Amino acid sequence: MKYSTKLSDALHILAFLNMGAGQRITSARIAESVKTNPAYIRQLMVALKSAGIITSSQGQAKAELTRQPGEITVLDVYRAIEGNKPLLHWDIDTNPECGVGIYVQLSIADFYQEIQRAAEQKMQAISLQDIIDRYDKKLNELEQKSERELTP
Prior knowledge:
Layout (H helix, E strand, L loop, with lengths): L5 H14 L7 H8 L3 H13 L3 E2 L8 E2 L8 H9 L16 H27 L2 H23 L2
Antiparallel strand pairs: 1-2
Helix pairs in contact: 1-3, 1-4, 2-3, 4-5
């Protein structure tokens, strides 16, 4: 089963733009980092621009964040990319003549709504700055580990 990586790819784009602020960053350069094609990156950037998260000019490699990274939440990016699409999907194609098929799915839907609300609360609490800070921490840990391995 194929799953969507749009949210993580969009967050990757935003982190890349923030870290390269002031530089000429093309969709091809971002696509190389994400390991995808530039058209896909441009598609995500259009959604981010429509949501007011980035600014850009057609034909210009000067996309920028419209807010500080601490003011952009994972939920903001999720809504920009996925709209109101739920995280989990229940099966609406069950046998309508089977009480189990109908009521089990309706019960599952109730729990999925609870999960959705909890996930959205957590996504609202995580900012792009949090992701960048975690990136810096992981990079620092890797560098320290490399230094320890090189030291006799």
